[in-house]
Amino acid sequence: MAERGLSRRRFLGATAALGAVTFFSMTPVSRSIAAALSPTASSLLGFKAVPASTADTVVVPEGYQVERLISWGDPLFTDVAEFSNQLHKNTAANQKRQFGDNNDGMSLFPVDEQTAILAVNNEYTNYELMFEHQGKNMTAADVGYAQAAHGVSVITLAKAKEGWRFDKNGRFNRRIDANTAMRISGPAQGHALLQTNADPKGEAALGTFNNCANGMTPWGTYLTCEENFNGYFGSDAQVDMSPEFSRYGIAAEDAGYSWYKFDSRFDLAKEPNEPNRFGWVVEIDPHNPNSTPVKRTALGRFKHENAELVIAEDGRVVVYLGDDERGEHIYRFVSRNKYNPVDQAANRDLLDDGELFVAKFNEDGSGEWLSLTHGQNGLTAENGFASQADILIHARLAATQVGATTMDRPEWVAVHPHEPMVFCTLTNNKNRGLKDNQPVGGPNPRAENHYGQIVRWVPTAGQHTAKDFQWDLFLMAGNPDIHGGTPYAGSSNITTDNMFNSPDGIGFDQAGRLWIQSDGNYSNQGDFAGQGNNQMLCADPKTGEVRRFLTGPVACEITGLAFTPDQKTLFVGVQHPGEKLVASQFPFGGNSVPRSSVMVITREDGGVIGS
Ligand code: FEO
Ligand code: CA
Ligand code: CA
């Protein structure tokens, strides 16, 4: 990611872009930018839209081509066995050196003209596709195999005549899984709540899992975000759940992974602090396969979606963070020290020291960042926060204490490459309006919201370190064919031709196109009739125009995107095709097991993607 210094001129550009949006009292629908700006033909979007699809394949626009880069189970080294469709033949030992399952967020690190590194999250597993017994007769060996399929895959890419390809001989290839040694760093390092029998000092964790989305730093490191970590813990013993465990969804009952039955580290009765060592952002140096990943506790503990990093005008590092759960929050980290563009080693621990904030959105279109600092805003020992480490370990409870806005499941955050504009997907929230702490209003304007929306904010004076911001809704997803004339039709930039539900992954290319990926209901029925399989769209952030770019195979989610620096190759993730045994044979066809895969998209004429 290039440094994103924000000049005064750039800020004026952003306010001009928002000029048509007025923050006077509006209905939820008309608060959307799309209602204020009439979508017109856009110079940013240069491809022909693809229709909704229910086919078991990836469809891209005319003039584009899509190929498979790598799939779950592909060997990352020359001496490793291939994935077997005879599932009992797959082993933990092989999986530890094969591409992990359920690829999610990813970042590309250019090395030279012919070489690049792609760091890819491997979020979770689908036991119904992984085991012949479909998870019903788990063994210790099965749990070991599942643990090995989680984490991160770092892969070397080489530029061949036919384009960018995975290099099995590449020197950066590495697997990080649920048992890889990691360091715990920052203000919560060593805290009593992070101490376990295996690690009485509370500073050396094992592994990372449920790695959802991602981020990257300008000093060349990868950020992987631990999301639904709670589901891996449990116990067959009687365990009293603390309010803190309950807030994070930790429960004794098996959520389906069964790890605790075979690995005592995940048994709440035996290791009650182990869950506190997950739910963090982990920083990885992908250039050094021997480097130790670091859990950065200053960024708070919650169900992290992604980590969107931008260098503020004054040189401090700002990281925007979403907590993906109904009624949870959006956070911002601001480093104490400044980014040093000429001495990358000096930036190594920038993410250990800074201030964490949580967002409050007001009805009038204003908003503010509330500090999560010990001694401020009621974050005191009397209220249950004895130290800054307490606040970070239980960031959700601290956010409630300071009065943060409860959101419709914050997913990815993306910062515009040239304007101080920040976008966050709020994927859906069936509970909105039904729970006292989740009232309808502000950026969460629809009760029982099955479609989701994208909120946008502009920080005061264009400074990502500012205390305040102005917000609007960039779009509201919906179904105009089913719900015309109601807020569930979506904002006016949503039509029969581009409708979708549940925006999740988002990211900008260098030209400022906003790419939107969906993880929603793919039934193509009822509220979702006409929307087909999950998909990827492209939006012009200034006009509000939205155009469908890609459709995925059956029962998949589209998640993860990365561009090469020349913007002529786009990597896109297809996650869990055929989940829950919905019939899919993607990507290999025949009678093969469906496998999550990273795809490579190029233009037949070699041009810039999306233009
Ligand atoms: Fe892993 Fe919130 O998506
Ligand atoms: Ca996601
Ligand atoms: Ca999701």
TrEMBL record:
Superkingdom field: Bacteria
Matches recorded under SUPFAM superfamilies: Calcium-dependent phosphotriesterase (SSF63829)
A Pfam family matched in the record: PhoX
InterPro entries: 6-blade_b-propeller_TolB-like, PhoX, TAT_signal
Name this polypeptide is given: PhoX family phosphatase
Highest classification ranks of the organism: Bacteria, Pseudomonadati, Pseudomonadota, Gammaproteobacteria, Pseudomonadales
